[in-house]
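Supplementary Methods. Inverse-folding protocol.

Structures were first reduced to a discrete structure-token string of length 271. This string, shown here, constituted the complete conditioning input.
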């Protein structure tokens, strides 16, 4: 049996963005993806406690947050494909973090109150974290949709047609809760964005929709120029059991896409 290794990061410096108010009743949600030890996060005005829970669910790492002030703090950030350990280090700057490893993989993190609770960091110095700001705070597309759905969609459409990637990512996050034709058209458009992260975020939003039109939009994304993105699309199509789209992928010009299509087809047609 392999031993469990413990790495103690004493007084790791803490990112706190936005104060310590309680979570809003409408319950903001963070979009979190995790793959091969690297994590991407889109969050707008969510509590640190909720964000940590989402990170734990996606990564499979048990994260215990024992600092009440940090748990209630609000976070607005966009993180793109960074190592999980790095993000934990930056999220809890100023706190004591204990990391547990099993079989060479991070399995548990315990976050304790800092000996110097007053230590804070400048978010602008944090590499890999970008906070899109309009006026005095991040764009709150979800709140705009709640106030006036039509105007909120127009605000999202404007952000999606702009050049700011982080604003597009936050706009796509807001569309998770909107299930209509206008939202689907915006997500369809985002699938053709030049930025890989925008296309990937749109894909994540679309895979939650079970309509036939959403399935057609996803199948159309198999024409994306990037074979790695086509692999991600094909994985979603496999989860949906779209045999027609998977069979078409057998003739994809990329070998990895063809191999995945063959594996999915075999798995889905097994009796």
């Amino acid at each position: 049996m392999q031993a469990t290794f413990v790495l103690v990061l004493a007084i790791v410096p803490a990112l706190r963005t936005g104060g310590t108010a309680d979570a809003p009743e409408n319950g903001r949600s963070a979009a979190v993806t995790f793959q091969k030890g690297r994590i991407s996060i889109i969050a707008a005005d969510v509590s640190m406690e909720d964000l940590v829970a989402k990170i734990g669910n996606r990564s499979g790492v048990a994260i215990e947050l024992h600092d009440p002030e940090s748990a209630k703090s609000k976070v607005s950030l966009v993180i793109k494909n960074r190592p999980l350990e790095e993000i934990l280090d930056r999220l809890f700057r100023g706190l004591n973090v204990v990391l547990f490893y099993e079989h060479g993989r991070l399995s548990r993190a315990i976050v304790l109150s800092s000996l110097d609770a007053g230590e804070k960091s400048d978010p602008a110095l944090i590499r890999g974290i970008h906070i899109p700001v309009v006026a005095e705070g991040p764009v709150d597309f979800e709140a705009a949709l709640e106030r006036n759905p039509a105007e909120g969609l127009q605000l999202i459409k404007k952000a999606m047609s702009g050049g700011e990637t982080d604003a597009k990512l936050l706009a796509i996050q807001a569309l998770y809760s909107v299930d209509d034709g206008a939202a689907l058209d915006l997500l369809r458009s985002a699938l053709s964005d030049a930025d890989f992260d925008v296309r990937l975020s749109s894909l994540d939003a679309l895979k939650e929709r079970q309509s036939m039109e959403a399935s057609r939009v996803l199948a159309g994304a198999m024409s994306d120029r990037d074979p790695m993105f086509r692999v991600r699309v094909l994985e979603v199509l496999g989860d949906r059991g779209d045999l027609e789209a998977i069979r078409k992928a057998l003739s994809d010009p990329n070998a990895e896409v063809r191999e995945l299509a063959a594996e999915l087809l075999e798995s889905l047609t097994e009796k």
